[in-house]
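User: Show me a protein chain along with its predicted structure.
Assistant: Here is one chain, sequence first, then structure tokens.
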Amino acid sequence: MTDPEPIAHLSEDGRLHYLYEHLGGTAQRAEEMASAFGCGQWGYLAGLWHDLGTYSESQVLIIK
């Protein structure tokens, strides 16, 4: 049986880091950094999409 939420990776403390948390956090950080040169919205999208295409059922099985 698979986890209902896609998994990004294991965190340093060993807990599952779900994909939506990972992408959301990365998007917020990228937005903050890109805002320094007036491109916060583009930074947010880049952070949100940075793992696009990498999620697969086989990757989740490897993580687990």
